[in-house]
Amino acid sequence: MAPVHVLVFPWPLQGHINSMLHFAAGLLGAGLHVSFVHTEHNLRRVDLVKAAASPRLRLMSLPDGLPDDHPRSVDDLKDLAKSLITTGTVPYRALLASVLAADTADAGFPPVSCVVADGLLPFAIDIAEELGVPALAFRTASACSVLAYLSVPKLMEVGEVPIPVGADLDELVRGVPGMEDFLRRRDLPGTCRLRAETNDVDPLLHILVNYSVHSSKARALIFNTTVSLEGSALAHIAPRMRDVFAIGPLHAISAAPALPTSLWREDDGCMAWLDGHIDRSVVYVSLGSLAVISLEQFTEFLSGLVGAGYAFLWVLRPDMVGESQRGVLQDAIDAAGNDKMRVVDWAPQRDVLRHRAVGCFLTHAGWNSTLEGVVEGVPLVCWPFFADQQINSRFVGAVWGNGLDMKDVCKRAVVEAMVREAMESGELRMSAQTLAQQVRRDIADGGSSTTEFERLLCFIKELTAKGAVPRRPADSL
Q1: How many CA atoms lie within 13 A of 101 on its CB side?
Q2: Which domain of life is it from (predicted)?
């Protein structure tokens, strides 16, 4: 069979890049060639030396259309999305045409065989198919959250969405299949609530719904998840798509070579700091790559963490809080002693979570972070703040039982109480470790995710060889 070359194109944010680079690593481990598309802004932040470790990996880039000094933060995601759609399509089409050309083989790469594009980049799927390249969609969010977006039209039809200002957020939502008994209004993406300042629906809700529906046009939809975690959601999504693959958690598949995923410079010194602490004595705090917290929220978190009485390692990005807040934290560290607190701009999260000293993980419940906590069997305390993370935290607290859901609350007493429970509850720890054992079976030889990944490789190779779409086995999910 001719060499297979896959072009992988993530939405240009850290969380999306992480899981799609892990996917690319899996393709490389299976002997495929991969062209990975960054924006020019992000490519400048990548460790190119580490990325050059595989001769079958090629990093490419295109402009995102924003000025270099644009913050590209959570408050500016609409700017990035609009810019990509309006200015990114032309360079993407040109880039894809170039990797289709026969002369790409001169650089050691065969012409591109297929495209795997982020499901939030529908134009990347459409343009690939226009150029005769089979395109698959990859959703970096949980299957549960994607199912919620797919269910929004029905929720609107029966009047469960939009959620009025001042409504009882603990009322159950009945319109998301398989979640009727536990999903509350507060667990739906925040965009499902009417905005208090304008009493209208956030346009982002319709955008995300349309993008989720658009995935049905792709040859298949790929999830970084496993059937043991999200079997019900996957089963409800599958009939709406041409095919569905559940191949995660990708970061934990041992056959995949390590690739540099972080756009931030990691503080490796925090590992030595952890070495100086006894087993399960440290709280790891990280709210991801996008969260921006207010001075009030910062103060509540800090007071709650100090009150819980455990040492903590806090990832506090420079753009997450202002310099004044960082000064307050540094003063607290100086007063308490460095053995009890450490703050870093960024940390090697997977290494931190598997360190024996870490007893719980206070997280924003982003899907990558949730999966990393699940695999390591670390109890989670979830404080979600954006989009699909709301559903992830509900599953952690009410379905999987491997952590606590702190959504819509940022009070020192609650932070303190939940951190203590996560650190001290033997039942919670046992539940987290049992879940970890199941997920590890999924990614072991013969496990569901490993089997699905092998099926995906066959799917891609058949697309390359025949230009035909293999049929999904009826019992695959």
Answers
A1: 10
A2: Eukaryota
